Amino acid sequence: xxxxxxxxxxxxxxxxxxxxxxxxxxxxxxxxxxxxxxxxxxxxxxxxxxxxxxxxxxxxxxxxxxxxxxxxxxxxxxxxxxxxxxxxxxxxxxxxxxxxxxxxxxxxxxxxxxxxxxxxxxxxxxxxxxxxxxxxxxxxxxxxxxxxxxxxxxxxxxxxxxxxxx
Length: 166
Hints:
- The protein has six helices and five strands.
- Helices cover about 45% and strands about 10% of the residues.
- By secondary structure, the chain is an alpha/beta fold.
- It has a three-stranded parallel beta sheet.
- The chain folds into two domains: about 1-110, no CATH class; about 115-165, no CATH class.
- The protein has helices at about 5-10, 15-30, 55-70, 80-90, 100-110, 145-160, and strands spanning about 40, 75-80, 95, 115-120, 125-130.
- Helix 2 (about 15-30) packs across helix 3 (about 55-70).
C-alpha cells in the first residue's frame, strides 16, 4: 500500500517487521529457497550510526531481527539502505525487507523498471503487477510499452507453478 513517508514511519514496529519477515521467509520457501537469506534494511541513514540519527533501529528493527533469528529465520541487519541492495545484487542475500515503499522501489527500478515486477505478499491469492504505477500520464498516447506487463505475467506464472497453483 502507499502511504506518505511521515505515515510510513509509524508502521516501523517490531511486530510489523516480524510479520513481513515471517511472510517473506514463508513465500520464498514456497518458491524454492531452502533457507532464504533475508536482509532487513535500516530506516535511517547509516543504520542510525548507533543512535545519532534516530532510534528506530535500536527500538524496533534490531529486536525484530533478534526475534527472527530466534525463530530460525536467516535474517540480518539492520543494513544501511544505501548499500544493502548492492550486496543483494551480488548474491549475499536472497531478498531485502524494506521499511517503506520507495526504499525498495528506487534501487530495483535503477536496475531496470521495465523488468521489475511487484509481488504482493500476504494476500489470499498470488498477485503480481507492473512496477511503474498507473502511467495515466501516457495513457492513450500510443507510447506505452507492454514489457512490464509481460514480465509481471511471466513471474506470476512461474511463482504459481512453484506453489502448485498452475
